[in-house]
């Protein structure tokens, strides 16, 4: 996980995960979150998920 301070009450967090589709496919995904500090502590204010690679069910035999 990569964490970078944006301002006094905001940080940007980026992490990589493995995602699985309903059809059995799997792939690498990147989560990009903007984390903000509120009165009750830190919470995710905005989140973006980007798929990188898919494998398995989406591949065709050669």
Question: What's the SSE blueprint?
Answer:
Elements: E1 2-7, E2 10-20, E3 26-38, E4 41-55
Antiparallel strand pairs: 1-2, 2-3, 3-4
Which residue ranges are poorly predicted, with pLDDT under 50 across at least 5 consecutive positions?
none
Strand content: over 45%
Average pLDDT across residues?
A: 83
| Shape category | elongated
Helix proportion: under 10%
**C-alpha end-to-end distance:** 36 Å
List keywords for this structure.
4 strands; four-stranded antiparallel β-sheet; mainly beta; 62 residues
Task: Give a verbal description of the structure.
With 62 residues, the protein is mainly beta. Helices cover 0% and strands 73% of the residues. It is built from no helices and four strands. It has strands spanning 2-7, 10-20, 26-38, 41-55. Strands 1-2-3-4 form a four-stranded antiparallel sheet, with no helix packed on it. The protein is elongated, with a radius of gyration of 16 Å. It starts with a strand and ends in a 7-residue tail after the last strand. The mean pLDDT is 83.
Brief synopsis:
With 62 residues, this protein is an all-beta fold.
């Amino acid at each position: 996980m990569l964490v970078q301070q944006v301002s006094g009450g905001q940080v940007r967090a980026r992490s990589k995960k493995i995602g699985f589709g309903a059809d059995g496919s799997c792939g690498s995904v990147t989560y990009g979150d903007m984390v903000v500090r509120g009165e009750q502590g830190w919470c995710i204010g905005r989140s973006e998920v980007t798929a990188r690679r898919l494998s398995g069910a989406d591949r065709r035999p050669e």
